[in-house]
Specification:
149 residues, alpha+beta, OB fold (Dihydrolipoamide Acetyltransferase, E2P), six-stranded antiparallel beta sheet, three-stranded antiparallel beta sheet, globular
């Protein structure tokens, strides 16, 4: 279980796993050997609503940094997710076809989306935010949204 940075804004509590990197969009990347597992941050999944459908690129598909690798459909919105890593989809979470709500229930665990065989992880990592930087960005976004309520 990862350690978390945590904040509460209005009545919502958001967690950021410390052992990952993040795109400014809220997609996380966690290196695991030569592969990188990717998924949605807690903030992004809460902000988007209950996930009804998740479609991830097929195994073997090549994606560049920022390319769409998945589409998430919720009761509120449809979101096209940009890949935080360039590479080839090496595997997808089988739960996404039968239980996409795992994204809402456990965004840093059972709710992962895909494993990518990274083309150049070191270069892509430099374009991502570490947990502390993403936490500051996310907290600012959450506070701005709370002002609109």
């Amino acid at each position: 279980m990862p350690e978390f940075l945590e904040t509460t804004v209005d009545k919502f509590t958001f967690k950021v796993a410390k052992d990952r990197y993040y795109s400014d969009q809220g997609v996380w990347a966690k290196p695991e050997g030569t592969r990188v597992r990717i998924g949605l941050s807690d903030f992004l999944q809460q902000r988007s609503g209950d996930v009804a459908f998740a479609e991830v690129k097929d195994t073997g598909a090549a994606v560049e940094f920022g390319d769409e690798f998945a589409v998430i459909e919720t009761i509120k919105v449809n979101i096209s997710l940009g890949s935080p890593v360039g590479g080839v989809v090496a595997g997808t979470n089988p739960a996404m076809s039968t239980a996409p709500e795992a994204i809402n229930q456990d965004p840093y665990g059972a709710g992962w989306l895909a494993d990518l065989e990274a083309t150049d992880w070191e270069a892509d990592r430099l374009r991502l935010l570490d947990a502390e930087a993403y936490f500051r960005l996310m907290k600012g976004q959450a506070e701005e949204e709370a002002k609109k309520l």
